[in-house]
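G.,

No rush on this.
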Amino acid sequence: MASTSASSVQKSFKYDVFLSFRGEDTRRNFVDHLYHALTQKGIYTYRDDEEIKKGEKISDELIRSIKDSKFYIIVFSKNYASSSWCLDELVKIMECQKTNEHTAFPVFYDVEPTEVRKQSGPVEKAFEKHKEEESAEKWKKALREAADLAGWELKNIFDGHEAKLITKMVEEISLELRFTNSSVDGKLKLILKKMFA
């Protein structure tokens, strides 16, 4: 069962934001606070509420929700790479990111960008069990690509103060949505003007 928030004006996507995270690390703290801050701002947000069972494949509903989201917030934590579900989700997010219709923002919650990029430190430890899996190379590539994106590193922003980071993230996403919606509105007005001229 997925949770969603009050709707904002969006032209071509079902969700404004899709949250990708490892539940055991961040569901009941950072992600929960972020989700509620986004929804209070009227940002339509997808957060998967189901605990994923070990060995399960990413669901069709989740893939649709990824495709139907304008922005992705990927919360990298110590155990993110231990979940094949999270890694499959990340691969799909990075595929969508390349279309220029979507934008992904990584959050480095308790890991550093270089640890995600190089699969070192806690990320290497979490990824260890996947090294022999068929999908390992595409997962590594997706981790590298995501770590190269501009995002937020908790420990380097507001001295690790989560609430301040969440406020900043919500402000930036809100601004991006206003820009996106005003661009769409402008194009729509131009089309209508031509139709009725």
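When you get to it, here's the other one too:
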Amino acid sequence: MISQPGIKPFPQHNHSARLQAIFHAAPFRSALALFLVDLLLGAVTGVAVQHFFPQLDTPFVTMCVVAVVIAALLTWLGWWRVAGFNAPTQWRNLRLYWLPAVVAMIFPLFGGFEAVGVKMLLYMTLAYAITGFMEEAWMRGLILHILEPLGEVRAVLISALFFAGLHSVNFLFRSPAIVLAQMVGAFCFGLAFAVLRLRTGTIWFLVALHMIHDLLLHLSGFPTIPLNVVQDVVLLMYGVYLLYTSRKPRAYATE
């Protein structure tokens, strides 16, 4: 089985062996199926919440449901470590996070911050923490790993496209123009984060940076869209740079 640097092969568990075999035999179709399941789950949950519980925050409830499903799936498969939720002994090249950290934490500072109440700040922090876990575990954890046999470049690009497509569910809640712009930005973001996942061998920092990026983006005094465009362009350039300048030969692991 092909193993990329930073991500170990699937562990052997009897209860998931059949599913693992399917993933290995048809990586693209398997990743596409998981992407569609996630998309459908988000859409159905969003519509159901809007219809039956219109008083609730639909996006928040939707992502909570999806996050629970992802956590349950990781637990059932025994894939928490495979998804990157691993020990520090498996981390490497953490210096590569310096630029994404600057993009997420320093860029927004130049615009100051909008005043928000403590309750709203806590709510936003929780919401973006759930978002960070949900999107990273699904896209850079499960799907990216499943795509590994296709080769590093294709795995990164396809996972980034899926990540962009994942945001299409927001058409249910927001204006089309904003969602389309968000999808383009998500591709840039997803490409950089996918490369970092492969290079560093862990997903913990991606979850944290994802949360911080989204939170500070919406708290910054800068207009959200221009700031996000700048951040995404920088991340795209960085991701492409890492992808084509620090590629390593494939390692072939025996079953």
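DSSP finds nine helices and two strands in the chain. The chain has a mean pLDDT of 88.

Enjoy the weekend,
O.
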